[in-house]
Amino acid sequence: MTDLHPVIAKVTDRIVERSARQRLKYLDLIERGRDAGTNRTQLSCGNLAHGFAASGEDKPAIRAGSAMNIGIVTAYNDMLSAHQPYGRYPEAIKIAAREIGATAQVAGGVPAMCDGVTQGQAGMDLSLFSRDTIALATAVSLSHAMFEGALLLGICDKIVPGLLIGALRFGHLPTILVPAGPMPSGLANKEKVRIRQLYAEGKVGKEELLESESASYHGAGTCTFFGTANSNQMMMEVMGLHMPCASFVNPGTKLRSELTRAAVHRLAAIGWDGDDYRPLGHCIDEKAIVNAIVGLMATGGSTNHAIHVPAIARAAGIMIDWTDFAEISNAVPLLARVYPNGAGDVNNFHAAGGMSVVIRELLDNGLLHRDILTVARDGLTDYGKEPVIEDEALQWRDVPASRDLSIVRPVSDPFSPDGGMRLLAGNLGRCVMKVSAVEQDRWTIEAPAAIFHDQDDVLRAFKAGELERDVVVVMRFQGPRANGMPELHKLTPALGVLQDRGFRVALVTDGRMSGASGKVPAAIHLSPEALGGGPIARLKDGDMVRVCAQSGVIQALVDADEWNAREIPTPPPPPYDTGRELFALFRHHSDLAEQGASAMLAAMEAEL
């Protein structure tokens, strides 16, 4: 067996040491949750009668308390294509539970917003804090103490992190996440990008753009690019929280149904009444969190997880930072190119061997912790195999090698020797840049700043020809405290056009970029944010700014005395009528992006 890579070992040891105090408090919390907390056997007769009153044929089993009762927390809605298939899951789960003498109930629903619908719109200001809302809703769902295990039905951007954060407060429960799979491939991604850029230039109209987008996003299932939603699924694999290789099987197939059924059966097998108890709070430990970061780097995953992984980790008493990300990125080769980092989508990735090849390669080369507690019987090794239906039964088989080296490669021949997520630091603060889709001659941009506080102002300047030059577009007052840290994907086509015209272009922001960050260099999540006096607030139009992923520098090239003497501008007035004012508590008390951009987690730690 290959020894663990020394960098992975060093970072893990540092995280364990840094987290020791909080992790111990967390483990004590979940031990008390199982041994001394409320559970079904301790409910009064009135409590219990309320809990099974509408359970139909499952009522006798729930009443007797003789078998696991599974709590289903679902993010179903039929506006969100990724979650529309979940509508029928509860009934299928209940049938699968009865097959093994268990029962299941829908414990609750959580909101599931679609960043694809709100991208560039006012509703995007609610997006990041929907994660904490989902965590709270998950906790409410599981608070009834009727359950000995949980199935979490969620896929997309903030939903999986939110479900995990909430479920970790009930970390004594064995828990499995159940995906629903990606939609079949639609319009080729290269063609979609071409139409978007033509629209940005005014060369095609809205009808042509809508037709292109409709051909891309055309049915039930997750969007097929490798953004935050599919990065979530990848992470659940390398953390061992799915049934092995379940992420990218299309909805509506027999294989998809059998994987869901297998998750129900497996959950019952890892309950606390048996000899293979696997509680969520022990599955998600320091090694599992490191595996999640390794997976992100090996696959070119979403930059949004530079915020979400620290938040998930904190919920389990584990403290990580962007230095951990950067050191792991330097040690882990890029093994996958999935759009926007390559031409193929997640369906092509799965067909090429997908997660089974990536995990096996990482394990065989000492780049993943093999000895984590997973929901699969034989640990993370099981995740190096792919599921198939043979002889009418679900089985897992080996994938000897990648079936398409243009999409998935071995460690011996990677696309890049490192994972492509860089930490930048300087007199503007700390931020991250994803370079896996950026040409190397654009890793360093030095150009005058153009300052904006609103995405629409950037687009107006673009259409007026005011950005036809080398430029660092600075979008500030976009942090979690300012307006909820929206993604700025709306800017991608315009900035891409400028770059294609030969200009040296970069984006610098205290906001987020899309999880599908692409070819334009983007220094994002800049902390501290502008609101409250972060250094980005000192920038003026025309200041020379250097953004360098090669040396890890982000710097305003301004005389130090002048820089320090500058006054902080008044932030723009907040928009209204979006519902964002309901989230004022989250915004006003949010901590830094590097810590997870959450007010809830900071308050939680104070209570432990």
Can you offer a commentary on this structure?
By secondary structure, this protein is α/β, with parallel strands linked by helices. The protein has three domains: about 5-185 and about 220-400, no CATH class; about 190-215, no CATH class; about 420-570, 3-Layer(bba) Sandwich (Glucose Oxidase, domain 1), CATH 3.50.30.80. It is built from 23 helices and 14 strands. The strands form three sheets. Strands 7-8-12-11-10-9-13-14 form an eight-stranded mixed β-sheet. A hairpin with a 2-residue loop joins strand 7 (about 420-425) and strand 8. Helix 10 packs across helix 13. It is globular, with a radius of gyration of 24 Å. The model has no long low-confidence stretch (mean pLDDT about 95). Its EC number is 4.2.1.12. Belongs to the IlvD/Edd family. One of its GO terms (molecular function) is 4 iron, 4 sulfur cluster binding.
End-to-end distance: 39 Å
Strand order of the largest sheet: 7-8-12-11-10-9-13-14
Share in helix: 25-40%
Structural class: alpha/beta
Task: Give the radius of gyration.
Answer: 24 Å
By DSSP, the count of extended strands is 14
What would the principal axes of the Cα set say about the shape?
Answer: globular
Separate helix tally? 23
- Average pLDDT for all residues: 93
Strand count, sense and closure of the main sheet?
A: 8 strands, mixed
Strand content: 5-15%
Poorly predicted ranges: none
The domain tally reads 3
